[in-house]
Design brief:
58% helix; 8 helices; 7% strand; 3-stranded antiparallel β-sheet; 166 residues; mainly alpha
């Protein structure tokens, strides 16, 4: 009898609404895709996202463009962007500063695969400016070689000079 009274007094779990279907759960997600450094605008998810955050779009757009630039530089084929995280990042900076690459990648749900690709040696040379980056790297390496050769030549010449005694 006492256990029945106790069970009537303790509140049970709150009532749960109807189960969500996958389509309903997806409509609430604020995720959209960036392929080859370009946002897929033709997607209904992106259109809904843009409509929902129209008031903040002037803050979101520079962050989105910066993310597109980073993803295209490293030739990342697909990135899935969490729109909520992108909004938080945009509101954090409010066009005062530029977000870091790490903060931009944190806005993506597949950040592990993105970071793996970004850390692959030579990945930056696969992007649209890859030839320019490669040429700059080759020139910088060659200039370093020339400068070091001059320094070693001067050190070698100095060691062969007679010491002057006063």
């Amino acid at each position: 009898m006492h256990s029945q009274m106790h069970s009537q007094m303790t509140p049970g779990p709150p009532p749960v609404g109807p189960p969500q279907t996958p389509a309903l759960a997806m409509s609430k997600s604020r995720k959209f895709t960036i392929q080859c450094g370009r946002t897929v605008f033709e997607n209904s998810d992106f259109e809904d996202y843009r409509k929902d955050y129209a008031a903040h779009w002037s803050l979101i757009l520079p962050c989105l463009q910066e993310l597109e630039l980073v993803l295209s530089q490293f030739a990342i084929p697909v990135a899935i962007v969490d729109g909520e995280n992108l909004v938080r990042l945009a509101l954090k900076y409010k066009m005062n500063n530029r977000p870091t690459v790490a903060e931009l990648v944190d806005c993506c749900t597949n950040q592990v695969s993105i970071l793996t690709l970004m850390q692959t040696p030579g990945q930056i040379y696969k992007g649209p400016q890859g030839y320019d980056f490669a040429a700059a790297k080759i020139q910088a390496t060659f200039r370093m070689y020339l400068d070091r050769s001059k320094i070693y030549w001067c050190i070698d010449r100095a060691s062969k000079l007679p010491v002057l005694l006063l």
